[in-house]
Structures are given as C-alpha cells and as structure tokens.
Amino acid sequence: MRRNRALLLAMGLCLVGDPGHADEALRARARALFGPLEPPAASNVAEVALGRRLFFDTAISADGRTGCVSCHLPGQWGADGRARSPDARGRLTSRNSQTIFNAVGQPALRWVGDRDTAARQAEGSLTGSLGFASTADALPLLRQRGYEPGFRAAFPGMAEPLSTATYGRALEAFQATLVTPGRFDDWLRGDDAALGPLEQQGLQTFIDTGCAGCHRGPRLGGEAFAKFGVVKDYWTETGSTDRDTGREAVTRNPADRHVFRVQMLRNVARTAPYFHDGSVADLREAVRVMAAVQLGRTLTAAETGAITAFLESLTGSVPAGFSTPADPG
Ligand code: HEC
Ligand code: HEC
Fold first, then answer.
1. Sorting pLDDT into bands at 50, 70 and 90, what band is 279?
2. Distance 321 CA to ligand 1 centre (A)
3. Distance of CA 238 to CAs 27, 190, 292, 308, Å?
C-alpha cells in the first residue's frame, strides 16, 4: 500500500515535469478505467417514437397529470431538482429521482438496484409513481388516448401489441437513445484541447484519491454496489435525517445495510441535489462528503476544486429527442 502510494507520487511528479508525457500516461489510465460512452445502438424508430410519446404524456396516470417527465425533466437533465418528487397519489417519493440519461444498460437500476431492466422499471412505475391500483388499469386509458396505432406500428406481428410489457419495452427503447457523450470522451479519444489543465488535474486527483475504485466504466459508476459510509456513517456528513437501510431492504441480507448502487457521474454537475436522499445541494460539498465517508480523506480546497472541475467536464448535451413530441403520430 505504502509502496503503491510512493509509486503514484513518483508518477505524479514525473507527470508535472513533462506535460506531453503526462497527457498520454493519464489518458492511458483513464481509458483503462473508464473508456468513452458509445453512441446508442440502432433502434426501431416506431418503438422509440412511441416511447417518447408515452414518456411525455402526463394523462397516463391515476391522477391524470403525472408522467415520467414530471420527475425526469428536460431542464434538470433527466433528473429532478427536488430532493423528493410528488407522485400521482400525492405522496413524496422515498428517494431522489435519478437522471435517466445514460441509464439504460446498467446491470441494475435504481439506487438499490431493485430493477434489472428499464422495461421492467417502466412497467413498475404504473403501480408506483403513476399511481394505478394495477398495471392493467393503464390499458383502457392508453386505448382511449389513441395509442393503439402507435403500438401496432412499434410491435408489428404481435397478436396483442398493446400491453403493459410493450409499454415498458417502448419506454426502454426511447430511453436507450438518451446517451450524452461530452468533452471527456473527446479527450479520451485523443483531443488534447478537450480538457483544460485544471480538469486534467482533477481527473488525476479523482483516480489517485481512490474515487475511481468505485466510480468506473464509461458512466463513471452504475456498475457496482458499495456501502454508503465505508469509513463513517454517511448521515454524520450529509446531515440526512432519515437512515435508509439501502439494498438490505431488497436482499434481506444484513451485509447490504446502507449499500447503494455506485451512482454514475455523467452530467452530475447538472443533477443536484445529490445522494439517494437529495441531502446535499452543492457538488463541491458532495465531493467532500464522498472523500470523508468513503475514503477517510480530508481533501484540500484545491483538490476538491480540481475534482469538481473534472466532474463538470462530464456534462454532455440534453439529447434533441428529449422533449415533448410535436406531432403525436
Ligand atoms: C413521481 C416521480 C417519478 C415518476 C412519475 C417517474 N419516476 Fe423514474 N424515478 C423516480 C425516482 C424517485 C427514482 C429512484 C427510485 C429509487 O431508486 O428508489 C427513479 C428512477 C428511475 C430510473 C432508474 C435510473 C437509474 O439510473 O437506475 C429510470 C430508468 C426511471 N426512473 C424511468 C422512469 C420512467 C420511464 C417513468 C415513467 C413510466 C418514470 N421513471 C416515472 C421518480 C419518478
Ligand atoms: C467505496 C465506493 C465509493 C468511493 C471510493 C467513492 N464513491 Fe462516490 N458514490 C458511491 C456510492 C455508493 C454513491 C451513492 C450514495 C447514495 O446512496 O446516495 C456515490 C455517490 C457519489 C456522488 C453523488 C452522485 C449523485 O448523483 O447523487 C458523487 C458526486 C460522488 N459519489 C463522487 C465521488 C468522488 C469525487 C469520490 C472520491 C473522492 C467518490 N465518489 C468515491 C461510492 C463510492
């Protein structure tokens, strides 16, 4: 451990001495740890169009005014700026609404990984956030709102194209298009100017401090679970009033107490507030909390600033298709 740290320090020094070399060494490490986001796979156009229409339709809900878009907003980068969001039963969600950008394809969805696909997640929303007593209760409403031709076009050849399963599949197909590469990907692919010196320094600090031990892969997270509060209880630093048992509620295994999915960090500068309970409003503060509770580290103001600058470089653009469709055809 100590030898590793000495080695990293030596590498760090040699990086400072030789900027050209530094770029390449850092890029090679970053490519191995993260890798660029790949563009969305080719998709069935009719399915995506249907999913888009469903996503922005607030009438398909028990209260007639709640849709996916109510808690995954374009202005909030597919997340919600509120710590918790009101659902169609007029209750607040138990956790913070996550961004749906880049979400499809993670091995497990939601804060505690209790959904395996976005299709099943969407189907679950019908009796969850959208407030129906049973998923089938949505079907008459979908027919009434003229969705049958859209389902037939998206799922040709099916005996019954309009079902809650195809509702989920269409929403997954639409969300799979919401991939947001940014400057970090350009830099990984060799564009030196895509990241400024402070952002590169922040990337280096992100790796050397140990953040990348958990936040890895092209999304910088989303691939593993970890305890929130490895070194000390998370609420001592976030000031959270609730103590969420995390994944233990799903697995019933005490070893999963306070375990959450390592949240992906793409667009993180635009998706405040932070953590599963939205307890932290500011990104610098979230970085400080993470270093303290996950790694037992007190970062200097310069280190926090550099990591935050790096995280800001993970901002892509809101996909053009992430808006209410003009022609509900
Ligand atoms: C009332 C607010 C609300 C509504 C409506 C809503 N969501 Fe969510 N969504 C959330 C919250 C809160 C979470 C996190 C839940 C958790 O982990 O416990 C979430 C999580 C997700 C995730 C997981 C993202 C990830 O990275 O794992 C996806 C995907 C998603 N929602 C899609 C949808 C779709 C599609 C709809 C419409 C069918 C929808 N949501 C409706 C609040 C909402
Ligand atoms: C041991 C694994 C681990 C390490 C190390 C770690 N994280 Fe995290 N990170 C997580 C988990 C788990 C979450 C989700 C916590 C929760 O449930 O709210 C998270 C959440 C975050 C969030 C909030 C994301 C959001 O959208 O709410 C940020 C920002 C973050 N981490 C940055 C960092 C930084 C910067 C470092 C290094 C100083 C770091 N993390 C180190 C596991 C880790």
1. very high
2. 18
3. 33, 38, 10, 17
The CB of 122 under 6 Å from ligand 1? The reply is yes
Query: Tokens for 284?
Result: 């610098």
**Is any atom of ligand 1 closer than 6 Å to the C-beta of 73?**
no
- Kindly give the distance from the C-alpha atom of residue 98 to the centroid of ligand 1, in angstroms, as a whole number: 7
| Tokens standing for residue 266 | 């793409």
Who's near 72: CB < 8 A, 6+ residues apart?
Answer: 55, 78, 79, 80, 97, 99, 100
- Does the Cβ of 287 fall within 6 Å of ligand 2? yes
Q: The dihedral of CA 79, 85, 87, 93: what is its sign?
A: positive
Predicted confidence band of residue 1 (pLDDT cuts 50, 70, 90): very low
Residue 78 Cα, ligand 1 centroid: separation in angstroms? 10
Q: Are 87 and 126 in contact (CB under 8 A)?
A: no
**Spatial distance between the Cα atoms of 65 and 86, rounded to a whole number of angstroms:** 11
The tokens for 155 are 């799922």
Q: Tokens 């949240």 label which residue?
A: 263
Query: How far apart are alpha carbons 164 and 263 in whole angstroms?
Result: 28
Token readout for 75 is 């202005």
Indicate the pLDDT class of residue 22, thresholds 50, 70 and 90: low
Cβ-based neighbours of 36, under 8 Å, separated by 6 or more: 181, 184, 185, 188, 189, 218
| Type of residue at 145 | R
pLDDT band at 7 (very low <50, low <70, confident <90, very high): very low
What pLDDT score was predicted for residue 20? 55
Which residue, among 154, 128, 126, has the nearest Cα to 141 in the 3D structure?
126
